[in-house]
């Protein structure tokens, strides 16, 4: 995995987990098992988006990588 890809994965994972925590009241009625399933699905979706973003960056070159790094507040050399 490239440094920018690794940084994107970390940043997206951080955002996902922060949002899941923020939305705890909305999922309070779920059983612990159901909440864990929602969390797991959310993390998988986030990782899939980050993986596709990394693939696009690899094909797009450094100019695109710099724009994405600024957009998602990550450093090109790792986070």
Average pLDDT works out at: 82
| Gap between N and C termini | 13 Å
Main β-sheet: number of strands, strand sense, barrel status? none
Q: Considering DSSP H and I runs of 4 or more, what fraction of the residues is helical?
A: over 70%
The arrangement of helices and strands along the chain is HHH
Structural category: mainly alpha
Report the principal-axis shape.
Answer: elongated
Please provide the count of β strands. 0
Oligomeric status of the shown chains? single chain
Rounded Rg: 15 Å
Q: Low-confidence segments, ≥5 residues, pLDDT <50?
A: none
Query: Count of DSSP helices?
Result: 3
How many domains? The number is: 1
Fraction of residues in β-strands: under 5%
Molecular structure report:
The protein has 3 helices and no strands. The protein is elongated, with a radius of gyration of 15 Å. The protein starts with a helix and ends in an 8-residue tail after the last helix.
List keywords for this structure.
elongated; mainly alpha; 75% helix; 79 residues; 0% strand; single chain
């Amino acid at each position: 995995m490239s440094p920018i890809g690794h940084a994107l994965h970390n940043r997206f994972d951080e955002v996902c987990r922060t949002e899941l925590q923020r939305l705890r009241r909305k999922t309070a009625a779920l059983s612990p098992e159901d909440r864990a399933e929602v969390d797991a699905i959310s993390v998988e979706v986030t990782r899939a988006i980050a993986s596709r973003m990394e693939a696009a960056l690899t094909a797009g070159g450094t100019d695109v990588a710099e724009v994405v790094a600024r957009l998602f507040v990550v450093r090109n050399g790792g986070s």
